[in-house]
Write a structure and sequence with these properties.
The chain folds into two domains: 158 residues, HAD superfamily/HAD-like (Rossmann fold), CATH 3.40.50; 58 residues. It is an alpha/beta fold. Strands 5-4-1-6-7-8 form a six-stranded parallel sheet, sandwiched between helices. Helix 9 links the parallel strand 6 and strand 7. The chain is 39% helix and 13% strand. It has ten helices and eight strands.
């Protein structure tokens, strides 16, 4: 992609905020924040079958369905609904919604955790200073709320820190598709030049949004390593406090 090439003059140190000759942080009115491996992550490399597996387990444990019947109903929803919500499965499985989400939170906290303890304070500071916050995700909105709840940033009823949850179901596109980011901009009513992205994926959080005109991405890696150099296109950060420091040094 030609517009991703970085000249020698644009290359900057990986230490600290970009100088004035680099990206103008003061142009950012909104931050689009990824969730998986940015806000929540697996504990100690654990893996899971996803929330769909928890749904089947809940259908057996609290819904009193057989495992076979639960699996049959889940597959039917997946076959009949392209862009499904978890509510589609909850209804199909005849689960009590409140009991299910409490059950799911307890189950998934065993292997999912927030990526860092500084997130809430940094996000609150950004919001107080007028930066609009949005979540980008390949999850539907209820799955986003569930993961934000695991991170201590929301409940299943809502996420006060964030203006919108830009889930794949709502946008009917995935983050690796340019149309996802075009629709995200359409949803929030801002120009690409007014938006920055925070995420962990070079492709999904930098290359694809950059291809539709979003000028800058904060790439987070809590180990301090980076796959690209800092430039007017990318700032490498190790936590949310560094993002806030960049955006608020106006």
């Amino acid at each position: 992609m030609d517009n991703l090439s970085i000249t020698d003059d644009e290359k900057l140190s990986n230490n600290g905020p970009l100088p004035a000759a680099g990206f103008d942080y003061s142009s950012v009115r909104a931050l689009l924040v990824d969730i998986d491996d940015t806000i929540v992550r697996f504990r100690n490399g654990a893996q899971t079958d996803s929330l769909l597996g928890v749904l089947q387990s809940a259908a057996v444990s609290i819904g009193r369905l057989s495992s076979h019947e639960a699996a049959r109903r889940i597959e039917r929803v997946k076959e009949e609904t392209t862009w499904w919500h978890f509510s589609d499965f909850i209804v199909a499985l005849d689960l009590n919604p409140r009991r299910f989400w409490e059950y799911a939170l307890q189950r998934e906290r065993a292997y999912l955790e927030p990526t860092g303890s500084e997130m809430r304070a940094a996000l609150e500071k950004l919001k107080e200073e007028g930066i609009l916050l949005y979540v980008t995700s390949n999850n539907p909105s209820s799955g986003i709320l569930h993961k934000l709840a695991i991170a201590g940033l929301a409940t299943i009823q809502g996420a006060p820190l964030f203006s919108q949850l830009l889930g794949a179901t709502e946008l009917q596109a995935m983050k690796w598709q340019p149309v996802y980011w075009k629709k995200a901009l359409a949803h929030i009513g801002l120009n690409a030049s007014e938006v920055a992205v925070l995420g962990d994926s070079l492709r999904d959080d930098f290359e694809v949004p950059h291809s539709v005109g979003i000028p800058h991405t904060f790439l987070i890696n809590r180990n301090g390593s980076s796959t690209v150099e800092n430039s007017r296109f990318v700032t490498n950060v190790s936590d949310f406090e560094q993002v806030a420091a960049c955006l608020l040094c106006r």
